[in-house]
Structures are given as structure tokens and as C-alpha cells.
Amino acid sequence: MELSLQSVIGARALGEFEAPAPVARGLPAAAYTSEAFFALENERIFPASWVFAGFVHELARPGDAVPVTVAGRPLLLLRDAAGGIRAFHNVCRHRCLKLVDRPGNLGRAIRCPYHAWTYGLDGGLRAAPYFGGREPRAVPAGFDRAQHGLVPVRSAAWHDWVFVNLDGAAPPFEEFAAPLRKRLEGLDLSRMQHLATIDFGEVAANWKLLMENFIEPYHVQFVHSRTTDQPLADHYTVNEAGCLGCAVDVSREARKPDVLSEDSRFLTLFPNFVLGLYLPDQVGVHLDTPLAPGRTLQRRAIYSLDPAPDPNGRAKRLAVLWREVHREDHAICERLQQGRASDVAAGGGILSPVWEDSVRTFQNLVIERLR
To answer: Which of 117, 54, 112 is nearest to 85 (CA)?
Structure first.
């Protein structure tokens, strides 16, 4: 039986979510806890979208490869012999074994460990030893190597970020990224230097809770009272077609040292690209990889626009700060996930029309893509 949005969350819950009201409801709990809802996302949202999947700096040399998971599918990001970034389904065309299971340099070819089928960095099948008999080069009659290379996946690299589109039918990447580019006008991201990456491992929360938490400013002065000095009154939401988030223009001097107190922009592209800009010269990007309804892998890359290599040990200081900020966010998101086991959460809670309007737009996008 084919899944449908209504069959997964129920007509009543869907109707209550969509009902016009001065104070809107949030997504019902099933959107965060249901295996069927997650399966529907992996069928209809992620394959049809430009999904953030990896980092260019991890593909520095020809042959560098990183296995990733998108919509539950194993993919492979790599740098080819000509220096280009490519994406493939990470599956041998012979018996469909996952080819690469850890990041590293593959040299000049991708070799299947099962029967030694070998592919070039362009994905073409180079060898299928003994496939057609007792001789190394023997192939069955009618077998065409050109038809059995790795299956490519549409991809785009923007600065340090690699995006993939599984179904190949999403709008052009330039169109997808345009709303965020507009928000970043005047900022020369070509000067960006990677300082550090923090791997948080698994967070026991649905991917949407991590996205929603980043998008809204309502929680900042409460959850991050020890790590930030950005009053709620100085914040505003960003609720634009194609770009959701919030921002803050701080109206006073920082009162505490070693906290986040800068003017900041917290911006996203649906479904999973997260960029923080901390003026004048710091950038942070989250990579959220959904694994299950209540499990998400998260990493954060930290960048500097300062031309100095690492002034005064900045990378170390920023890594310490951001580990603590994320620790605070993860504790909240995991409790949000736990709360959705309650019958009270079936109705989705309610959203502030002032501080969570962009969260509502994000949730509307989820529902629209699942229809």
C-alpha cells in the first residue's frame, strides 16, 4: 500500500495543523516520531531537493572520496582526475555492494572488494575480471562496459559545500541558492578559510527539530544565557521565499567576555542547509544528516573571512565556544523529541506569530513537499 501524508498523520491532525488561526499549531508529534513519516520524507522531500551532503575541503586531492547518506541511500562524493567534484550512487553495478565505507584517497580507481570490479574516478567501468569465464578479460556476449559504470548523481559545489539532487529534477542550483546569495550580498565568501570541523556524532532528535531550533530566535536568551549576549529584543525573523531563519543586530556592547555577542545572521535553505554569519568575519555551517525519526548526525564547519591564517589561536577558541552552544541546543532538541512521546504532543503545540513565523513556513514546506 502506497504511503500518503493523510494516512500517516491522520486527517484530523492534518486539518488542525492547516486550520487558519491567529496562533498556529505546530506539526503533530507523528511528524517527528513516525517511521512512516520519515519514509515519506525519504521518498518525497530529500530526493526531489538540493540536499547539503558534504564539504569540498574534505575532497582536496584527486581520488579523495567521502561516503555519505542522503534519503537513506548510500552515495559517494569524490574529486576526479581533472579536479572536479562528482557524486555517484555508492554501489557496485555487479552485486550492488556498498563500494566505499570510509573517507580516504582511492588513488586512481575505485575497486570493489567483493569481485574486484574496478571503476575510474569518472565512474566508468574499467575492469570486470573473469566475469565471462576463466580468462581475466572474458566478458559475456553482449556485455557493454560503458553501460555498467557507476550511476552518477546530479551535484553542485558552492564554495566549500557540496549539494546533491537525487531525482535530477530540482530547479537549477543557482536558482535554489539565489535567495541566500541575496542575503549575503557584499560578503566575499571567496576569502573564506576553513578553521575547524566539530563532529557531534548522533543527536537523539529528529532533523526538523534541529532545523527549527536554528531558525527561530525565541530560545536564544534563555537557552544560551551563558554562551551568548544577544538580547531577544534585538532579533528579528527572516521569512522569505527560499530563505528562512532569523537575525540579530546587537544594540549594546557585550557585557561578558568569550561569548557570542556579534551581529549575526542565521539562514537556511530547505531542507537541510544551515549557515550562520557572525559579523564581521566568521561563518559556521551545519551538516545535518537524518538517520531515523529520532536520530540525526550533525557536524559543524567553522570558517574565517580574516586573511590571517589563525590570529591568536582563534580556531581553538571558536571550537570551544561552539561545542558549548551546540551542547545547549542538543539538550533542548533531545527533550523536544522526548516530549513528543506524550499524548499532549499529538496536537503539535503552538507557535509564536512573532518569533516562530519562519518555523511555521518551514513546517508548511514539509507538508507541501509530502503531498
So the answer is: 54
Q: Which stretch of DSSP H or E encloses residue 265? A: strand 264-269
pTM over 0.85? The answer is: yes
Cell numbers 499524548: residue: 343
Judge contact between 101 and 86, C-beta under 8 A: no
Q: In this structure, which long-range contacts are made by residues 321-325, counting pairs with CB atoms below 8 Å and at least 24 apart in sequence?
A: 321/227, 321/258, 321/259, 321/260, 322/198, 322/284, 323/198, 324/226, 324/227, 325/224, 325/227, 325/228, 325/260
Task: Count Cβ atoms below 10 Å from residue 242 Cβ, excluding itself.
Answer: 17
131-178 pLDDT per residue, tens: 999 999 999 999 999 999 999 999 999 999 999 999 999 999 999 999
- Is 125:67 a contact under the CB 8 Å cutoff? no
In tens, the pLDDT along 59-89 reads 999 999 999 999 999 999 999 999 999 999 9
What one-letter code names the amino acid at 51?
V
CB contact at 8 A, 138 and 132 = yes
- 51-156 has CATH 1.10.357.10 classification: no
Domain ranges in the chain are 51-156, 175-370
CATH H superfamily, domain 175-370? Naphthalene 1,2-dioxygenase Alpha Subunit; Chain A, domain 1 (3.90.380.10)
C-alpha cell at 352: 509564536
The x, y and z cell numbers of residue 338, run together, are 522526548
